[in-house]
Amino acid sequence: MADARPVGAADPGLFGPDSVTWNIHCDPMMWIAGVRALYLQALHPRAVRGVMQNSDFRQDTWGRLMRTANFVGTITYGTTDAAEKAGARVRRIHSLLKASDPDTGDRYGVDEPELLLWVHCAEVGSYLDVARRSGLPLDDGHADRYLHEQREAARLVGLDRARVPAGTPELAAYFDRVRPELAAGPEAREVDDFLRRPPISPWLVPARALLWQLVARLAYDALPPFAHELYGRPAPAPDRVTHRLVATGSLLRCVPSRLRWRLPPGHMVNAMARLGPGSRPTPYKLRRQAAILDGPGRAQDSDGGDSTRWRKPG
Predict the structure, then answer these.
(1) Measuring CA to CA, which residue among 221, 295, 264, 234 is closest to residue 40?
(2) Rounded Cα distance, 269 and 257, in Å
(3) Which one has a higher pLDDT value, 6 or 37?
(4) Which residue among 60, 109, 194, 222 sits deepest, i.e. has the most Cβ atoms within 10 Å of its Cβ?
């Protein structure tokens, strides 16, 4: 697709300031959503083996989390070129990695499409669920638009966009289909134990350890009921969890964005410097449906431009 931007115009990247992606990925609740995604991803035995057998997750948890945050930040707020390079690097690394099933001896690549699809859906599903339940003004149309946009992120890691859920009904159907393949095997139990009691360096103050426990507990409680059933640990009623998510989101959003966005890796600050103050993320943009459907950014080019396709059926 030819680039239609005026000569000299700043590159909005894959999504652009008026996308749903742009306006929720910088929200502080995405950290809790990311931990929720880890819990959920660990329930796919083949996927979690690929992580546990090929990474230093146990020794470098914080580094791994920051690398993931850096990747998401780059493809969300970076230039198109930076996003494409980040995706190419991930695809190159994945192409070299293998995992094995200890029961059958079967060896397989971690870049199998079904495994990449599970990781993608667990991640974007977690981001969307936590964002909506914590109080961001996302209606069903926004949710469908977000999942459509995230097919571009799926493409970057090696998936065929056409096979990736592009709306909430499709995502729900995908989870229903994959549910029989999920189990809380030994690796999932190890992830669960690690997230509940991560090793704490001596220099970490007790308050930080306590904060992590609160994050991990809320992330676990926000999982869907089938995940609680598989892990075998109960969780509060969904409405109580939603109340906690709203309260936590309200508290974290009281921290001035100019301070939050300067924390590493700082992609939002760089994006605003590139595109100007009008690129500042704000929930109010999510209420402007026309801007969301028609704003800049390659991922917002719909298939045929028919905005009616983002409405939920029924």
Answers:
(1) 221
(2) 10
(3) 37
(4) 222
- Percent of all residues in the chain with a pLDDT value above 90, rounded to a whole number: 64
303 phi/psi in degrees, rounded to 5: -75, 95
Q: Considering only CA atoms, which of 17, 27, 66, 70 is closest in space to residue 257? A: 27
CB 134 within 8 A of CB 29: yes
Query: What are the start-end ranges of the H helices in the chain?
Result: 20-24, 30-41, 45-52, 61-77, 80-95, 113-133, 140-156, 168-178, 186-196, 206-221, 225-231, 238-252, 257-260, 267-275, 289-294
Asked whether the beta carbons of 305 and 5 are under 8 A apart, the reply is no
- Which amino acid type is present at position 290? A
Burial of 205 (0-12, 13-18, 19+ CB in 10 A): exposed
Instruction: Report the amino acid identity of residue 152.
Output: E
Closest by Cα among 113, 97, 95, 103 to 51: 97
Q: What span, in angstroms and rounded, lies between the C-alpha atoms of 27 and 249?
A: 9
Say how many residues make up the chain: 314
Q: What is the 3-state secondary structure (H, E, C) of 139-183?
A: CHHHHHHHHHHHHHHHHHCCCCHHHCCCCHHHHHHHHHHHHHHCC
Average pLDDT, the chain: 85
Question: What gap in Å lies between CA 210 and CA 142, rounded to an integer?
Answer: 34
pTM for the whole thing? 0.86
Q: Cα 123–292–35 angle (5° rounding)?
A: 15
Estimate to the nearest angstrom the gap between the alpha carbon of 214 and the chain centroid: 20
The two three-digit tokens of residue 120, written as one number: 């993608």
Map tokens 């306590």 to a residue: 210
| 34 in Cβ contact with 68 (< 8 Å) | yes
**Segment 232-265, tens digit of pLDDT:** 999 999 999 999 999 999 999 998 887 787 766 7
pLDDT at 180: 97
State how far the Cα of 254 lies from the Cα of 252, in Å rounded to an integer.
5
